[in-house]
Design brief:
6-stranded parallel β-sheet; Quinone Oxidoreductase, Chain A, domain 1; homodimer; Rossmann fold; NADP-dependent oxidoreductase (chains A, B); oxidoreductase activity, acting on the CH-CH group of donors, NAD or NADP as acceptor (chains A, B); alpha/beta
Chain lengths: 339, 339
């Protein structure tokens, strides 16, 4: 393709249930012109994240849906190739929210410059970016783990879960992770240093989780829902806190869910155990905690107390398949498309 | 009966579903002897409250169940008739937790002296007692109503609901109440001064509630559950707070609830609207907020900004029927047994 073409992936149709490749369409378009205060970006890396499933649906959510024919949204690391703003010059590497495309115009005010000497620039999409901040803000503000308490998180090999467990341990709590398959479980225990890890494919997952949490669960960082919730629920302690940042297991579901109705039992436990359930989107906390997060997380990475893992897939054209796999837990670490 | 006999009501059997008079048994027993540091009490008033249904069941809850044959628990206002503690003398009126009986021994340390000159002593069981404090602590600590926000509470003619709405208005919020029947609704609007009130028996309750909350609901103080929840749920605003202190509508239920399963939809809304659901028992907040509550509530009663209503039933023998009625919303105001 010519360097004067913008390659992009748009939403072709809304998925019913599990997304398919037919819901996406690869297009060529003209490179956008930039106006005063803007820069032209060449995208280097695109972040793929579970929230993207929500944007593909028309259902009401915390953010507007992507329209049919619009470029799929997403966080990106990009190189400035043309600038009409004094704060940026060609060659600068920036964090932007440019979506699934090779080039984009962006307002300078919406960019954050990255210094490749500080950390690999891809970390701005993962451990030092939105997923890491989701873990940090949700765990510390809502979860509030105390020394000796037990923190449970699913998708523990992923960018949010792995940070949740490692930050919990930094705060003196026990970290119990749930992950899919022996390879991920070993990584969670050995590299991320969780105190225990359970394979969610284990037929006795609930029993194993109970055994790994002999003092119950004080914080359940909810990012998946589904059958992990069912295993966690009876183990929750009085005054347990449940930050809810994702429900990947039910993103592809639609229509009514079959009974029995678990809502009355949930509310009974909320009451009898004084539980706190709190949904959140990380941007709620960005203004107050973003700078502290970047400083603190960078120091934890530097001193080795937080590790991270990236899963880099080559080529924008592979993004649809990669996102479909992400929703099924096929990625292993922070999923990033390298353009 | 002789003045040397203690009349008491014990739990005869555990209810399955709705309690019946057969679950209770009236007994005579000896007046207890008191030891050093104790007083002998003659009970004047017994508080009946929804939580008592929970104590009748063996199901795990925040408090131990009452054993079969044990005196039913409950808050009481009593007169000291004999004292072996220097802090109390015969004739003193105290708040105690003596249960469904005419006489009781109590440790002086567990009593609080009441001054009848300050307020009618029955208010220590209602607006100035546990129900009023439940409203105060739950609404202010968890609900955190801001000026102009909309606060919804059910059982609005009851001791908790009426205080929730009136405190919400003191804090500058709109108070929307839900109550059963025209008489209670009129009282909620006219005497308690709510901005709007909905009859939960209205076939279009959900539609009326939506009309009464044109800007959505910011705080739903949950004390009933059931179909009120279903009407409230779609109206919740982003960042809405839901203190949960009771679920009267489901206390008599047992076994599984028929589908569809509403839990996944609840969690989806928790996530997409950043909802806070927080169960609580008032005693969690007593040490920190009890003194401030008593002072502030007394001043609100004195200046007329908080009104209260009591529903006084004569005779301990009528307590079982009164409690059964309470669980069906038959009381009108704070239910108190006068012995």
């Amino acid at each position: 393709m010519s360097q004067f073409e913008n390659t992009r992936i748009v939403l072709a149709s809304r998925p019913e249930g599990r997304p398919t490749p037919q819901n996406f369409r690869l297009e060529q378009a003209a490179i956008p012109a930039i106006s005063e205060g803007q820069v032209l970006l060449k995208i280097l890396y695109l972040s793929l994240d579970p929230y993207m499933r929500g944007r593909m649906s028309a259902a009401k959510s915390y953010a507007a849906a992507t329209e049919i024919g619009q470029v799929m949204e997403g966080g990106t690391v990009a190189e400035v190739i043309e600038s009409r703003d004094p704060a940026f010059k060609p060659g600068d590497i920036v964090l932007s929210y440019s979506g699934w495309q090779s080039h984009a115009a962006a307002s300078a005010a919406q960019l954050r410059k990255l210094d490749p000497a500080n950390a690999p620039v891809t970390t701005a999409l993962g451990v030092l970016g939105m997923p890491g901040f989701t873990a940090y803000a949700g765990l510390l503000t809502i979860g509030q783990p105390k020394p000796g308490e037990t923190v449970v998180v699913a998708a523990a090999s992923g960018p949010v879960g792995s940070a949740v467990g490692q930050i919990a341990r930094i705060k003196g709590a026990r970290a119990v992770g749930i992950a899919g398959g022996p390879e991920k479980c070993a990584f969670v225990r050995e590299t991320f240093g969780f105190d225990a890890v359970i394979d969610h494919r284990d037929p006795d997952m609930a029993g194993k989780l109970a055994a790994a949490c002999p003092n119950g669960i004080d914080v359940y960082f909810e990012n998946v829902g589904g059958h992990v919730w069912d295993a966690v629920f009876p183990l929750l302690n009085t005054f347990a806190r449940i930050p809810v940042c994702g429900l990947v297991a039910q993103y592809n579901a639609s229509g009514e869910f079959p009974g029995p109705d678990r809502l009355p039992m949930l509310m009974r436990e909320v009451l009898s155990k004084s539980l706190t359930i709190r949904g959140f989107i990380q941007r709620e906390f960005v203004a107050a905690q973003g700078p502290a997060f970047r400083k603190e997380m960078a120091s934890w990475i530097a001193d080795g107390s937080v590790k991270y893992k990236e899963d880099v897939v080559q080529g924008l054209e592979n993004a649809p398949e990669a996102l479909i796999g992400l929703l099924e837990g096929k990625n292993f670490g922070k999923l990033i498309i390298k353009l």
